[in-house]
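Private note to self, pasted from the team thread so I don't lose it. C-alpha cells:
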C-alpha cells in the first residue's frame, strides 16, 4: 500500500513499483560514474528509455568527464513517460567509514537541486545504492528520507515541487522505507 505524507507544499509518496513506468516530470537513475549504463535500475531505465539517453550521457561524458559519487546530471527521458532522467551516482558501501552517508545525502540533494533548475514539479527516486552498491537498507532509507524531508521543508514557501515519490522495487524495501519514515515522524513530533 502507498504511504503518503505532506512535507510543506510537497507530497511525499512511498510506493512499490517499477520506476521506468512512472508518469512524472523526472525519474532519477542510480547510475555509476561512467554514465555508460549498467545493471539494476540503470539497465532498466536505458532499456525502457531507448538509445537517446545513452547518446546524451556520452555527450555529457565528453564535455564534463565522469560523474563523481554524490553528483547528478540530466538527460531527456527518451521513450519514457518522464520528460527527464536525472542520473546520480550513489556511494559504494565500504563499511561506513568513507563518507558514504554524506555522499548518499549529496546524491539526493543534488538530484533535487537539478530538478528545480529544470522546473521539475514531480520526481521519482529509486532506493539509491541499496542494490549492487551494497548500502545497508535501513541506514540508506533514513538518509534518503531525511534529505528529501529537509529539502522540501526548506523550499516549502516557494511551492516549487509538488510530488516526490520513492518507487521501491520490492516489498521489503518499501516496508523498510515505511518504517524509517515512521521513525523520523515520531522523532519530529514527540
Ligand atoms: N524500478 C525501481 N527500482 C529498481 C528497479 C526498477 N525498475 N530495478 C532495480 N531497482 P541498483 P545501486 C532497485 O543495483 O545499488 C548499476 O549497475 C533495486 O532493487 O540498481 O545504486 C549501476 O550502473 C534496488 O532496491 O543501484 C551501478 O553500477 C535499487 O533499485 C550500480 O548498479 C538500487 O539498486 C549502482 O548500484
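Design output:
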Amino acid at each position: 500500500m502507498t504511504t503518503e505524507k505532506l512535507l510543506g507544499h510537497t507530497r511525499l509518496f512511498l510506493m512499490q513499483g517499477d520506476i521506468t513506468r512512472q508518469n512524472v516530470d523526472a525519474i532519477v537513475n542510480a547510475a555509476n560514474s561512467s554514465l555508460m549504463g549498467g545493471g539494476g535500475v540503470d539497465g532498466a531505465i536505458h532499456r525502457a528509455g531507448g538509445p537517446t539517453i545513452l547518446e546524451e550521457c556520452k555527450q555529457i561524458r565528453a564535455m564534463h568527464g565522469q560523474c563523481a559519487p554524490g553528483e547528478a546530471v540530466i538527460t531527456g527521458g527518451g521513450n519514457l513517460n518522464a520528460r527527464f532522467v536525472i542520473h546520480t551516482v550513489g556511494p559504494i558501501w565500504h563499511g561506513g567509514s568513507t563518507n558514504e552517508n554524506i555522499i548518499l545525502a549529496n546524491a539526493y540533494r543534488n538530484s533535487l537541486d537539478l530538478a528545480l533548475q529544470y522546473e521539475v514539479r514531480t520526481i521519482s527516486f529509486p532506493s539509491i545504492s541499496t542494490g549492487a552498491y551494497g548500502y545497508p537498507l535501513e541506514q540508506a532509507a533514513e538518509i534518503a528520507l531525511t534529505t528529501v524531508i529537509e529539502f522540501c521543508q526548506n523550499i516549502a514557501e516557494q511551492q516549487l515541487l509538488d510530488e516526490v515519490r520513492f518507487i521501491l522495487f520490492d516489498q521489503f524495501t518499501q516496508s523498510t522505507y515505511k518504517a524509517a519514515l515512521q521513525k523520523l515522524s515520531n522523532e519530529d513530533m514527540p
